[in-house]
Amino acid sequence: MRNVFIPPPVVMGLCGLLAAWMADFKYQLQYSNLLVACLMVIIGVYIASAAVMAFKRANTTIHPNKAEHTVTLIVDGVYAFTRNPMYLSMMFVLIAWCLVFVSAWGWFSVGLYIAYITRFQIMPEEQVLKRKFGQRYESYCLSVRRWV
User: Fold this and answer.
1) Nearest to 88 by CA among 37, 12, 4, 7
2) Contacts (Cβ under 8 Å, ≥6 apart) of 109
3) Residue 140 host element (H or E)
4) Which ranges of 4-146 would DSSP assign to H, the alpha helix?
5) What is the pLDDT at residue 3?
6) pLDDT (tens digit, 0 to 9) for every residue of the chain, 148 residues total?
7) Are 33 and 102 spatial neighbours (Cβ–Cβ below 8 Å)?
8) How distant is the alpha carbon of residue 115 from its chain centre?
9) pLDDT at position 124, please?
10) Are 109 and 22 in contact (CB under 8 A)?
C-alpha cells in the first residue's frame, strides 16, 4: 500500500469548500463576523510567518512531507506555545472562512481539518521527530501542547 500525501494547505482548502457547500455557498456579510474573521486571518498569518522565520533561522526544512530532513528541534518563539503553529495558522484561516459563511455546519469542517491533520500529518511527523531527537522531543511534547 502506498502512502498518499495531501499537502496541508490543500486539506484546509477542501475543508473550506466543504464549509461553503454546507452553507449552500451563501455568505452573510455580518459586520461583526467579518471583523472577527479578519482578526483570525491576521492571527493566522502572524503565527505562520513566525513559524517560517524560526525554520529559516534554524536552517531546517519547512516541508511537512520531509520531517526526516529536520536538523534542529525548534522549541522557542511560537513553538513554545504550540508544537504545530503552521497547522494552527491554517485552522485560524479556516475558522475565518466559516465565520464569513455564518453556518453552524461550517464548524464540522474545522473539526474534520483538525482530525485529518492530526491523524495523517502530525502523528507521522511526531514519530519521525521522536526517532530523531529522542528524549529531548518527548520532554518538549510533555511541556507544549500539540495544538494550543
Assistant:
1) 12
2) 15, 16, 18, 19, 22, 94, 98
3) helix 123-143
4) 8-22, 31-58, 85-101, 106-117, 123-143
5) 65
6) 346 689 999 999 999 999 888 887 676 777 888 899 999 999 999 999 999 999 999 998 888 777 778 889 999 999 999 999 999 999 999 999 988 887 777 889 999 999 999 999 999 999 999 999 999 999 999 999 999 8
7) yes
8) 11
9) 93
10) yes
Q: Is 26 exposed, middle or buried, given 0-12, 13-18 or 19+ CB atoms closer than 10 A? A: exposed
Q: What is the largest CA-CA distance in the chain?
A: 50
Among residues 143, 148, 97, 87, which one has the least CA distance to residue 118? 87
Q: Report residue 115 as a C-alpha cell.
A: 482530525
What are the boundaries of each domain within the chain? 28-143
Residue pair 96/41 in contact by the 8 Å Cβ criterion = yes
Reference 128, options 51, 69, 56; nearest CA is 69
What is the distance between the alpha carbons of residues 42 and 136, in angstroms, rounded to a whole number? 32
Task: Calculate helix-pair angle for 85-101, 106-117, nearest 10 degrees.
Answer: 170
All three cell numbers of 100: 464569513
